[in-house]
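REQUEST FORM: STRUCTURE PREDICTION
Request ID: SP-0412
Submitted by: Lab K.M.
Chain count: 1
Length (residues): 199
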Amino acid sequence: MSQLSKTEQVLREMKQYNIDILALSEIRWKAVGQETLDHGYVLLYSRGDNHHQAGVGLMMSPAAYRTMLKWTPINERILFARFAITHTKLSVIVCYAPSNEADDDVKDSFYETLQAVTKDIPNMMFYVLLINENGALLVDFALSNDLVVGGTLFEYKNVHKYTWTSPDGSTRNQIDHFLIARRWRTSLLDVCGYRGADA
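STATUS: Completed
RESULT:
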């Protein structure tokens, strides 16, 4: 499937599920940039590596884009954006964590960079992290930054928690997470996986 047709598919699913801000990982583009898509949707992306691996992005509706104050591509695994919302500002950090099999140096470097990005967000500001799983390191990061994992707050059947299915369909895991500062936990109304979405 071409990159263009993948983008079109994501746009269709954003409209179908009424999503204003969508975090993307493994976009694999070897560049940093911003593209305006059909119907005023906007895609921000932070480069993949030289092997067309990693890369993160943030796709948003025209309404969300109008509230964006700034965005910063940190590296091939982290992208930061800030939005003006009612009574405060919303900071969104899109993360593509190294897998559990990655070298410890790679994982340590990722979490050190992520910590540096989050420390610059004022305590009173509303912020969320959209991140894929890296086991104990993710839990340690959440605990040390007083974050809660959104998917653990709401009761759903497992089918609404899984975010990854193996190609043969035999294995399912919850590998994508929504983290939010504990002080803003009551602002979070729901976290759920959509079975039909395949972006």
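NOTES: Helices lie at 3-16, 62-67, 104-119, 135-144.
Reviewed by: T.R.
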